[in-house]
């Protein structure tokens, strides 16, 4: 039951990742939609679990804001990751951190390879072609999906 909110949030994360790849931006309405979904699914969770998730989300937001201020992350990435973290069950936050790290590595290597090889993908995919910029929303969405799969089959 504690993983159900994560599964409900996956379409939002997929939409955010796809939008980030196409436009190098993550719309605020997707982040707000995720927050509304979390509030609606809170009655399914124990109070201690809600507190753990909110604390993890606040810490992630603070770190993301710091990275945004340093110019490392975009604003959408700094908002999307905490919106995903509040859906991660407290006992699997460490697993999620590993999955997120692997997703960022895979996403970065994929974009670098795509750009180096010079593949002619759709021109409207700004995130795939913008030199010096990386659509982190793809990796965040990929981590959410991979974590949901891990919780389903391996946890």
UniProtKB/TrEMBL annotation:
GO terms for cellular component: membrane. Gene3D superfamilies: 1.20.120.1220. Pfam families: Peptidase_A24 (PF01478). It comes from the Bacteria. InterPro entries: Prepilin_IV_endopep_pep. GO terms for molecular function: aspartic-type endopeptidase activity. Keywords: Membrane, Transmembrane, Transmembrane helix. The keyword rRNA-binding does not apply. Residues 8-108 form the Prepilin type IV endopeptidase peptidase domain. The chain crosses the membrane at residues 25-47, 54-75, 95-114, 134-154. The keyword Electron transport does not apply. This is Type IV leader peptidase family protein. It comes from Roseovarius aestuarii.
């Amino acid at each position: 039951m504690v993983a159900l909110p994560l599964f409900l949030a996956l379409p939002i994360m997929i939409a955010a990742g796809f939008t980030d790849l196409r436009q190098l931006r993550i719309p605020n309405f997707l982040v707000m939609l995720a927050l509304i979904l979390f509030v609606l699914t809170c009655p399914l969770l124990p109070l201690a679990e809600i507190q753990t998730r909110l604390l993890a989300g606040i810490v992630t937001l603070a770190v993301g804001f710091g990275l945004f201020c340093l110019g490392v992350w975009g604003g959408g990435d700094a908002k999307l990751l905490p919106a995903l973290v509040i859906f991660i069950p407290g006992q699997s936050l460490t697993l999620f951190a590993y999955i997120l790290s692997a997703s960022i590595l895979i996403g970065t290597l994929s974009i670098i390879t795509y750009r180096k090889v010079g593949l002619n993908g759709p021109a409207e995919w700004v995130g795939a072609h913008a030199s010096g910029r990386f659509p982190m929303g793809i990796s965040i969405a990929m981590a959410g999906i991979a974590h949901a799969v891990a919780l389903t089959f391996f946890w």
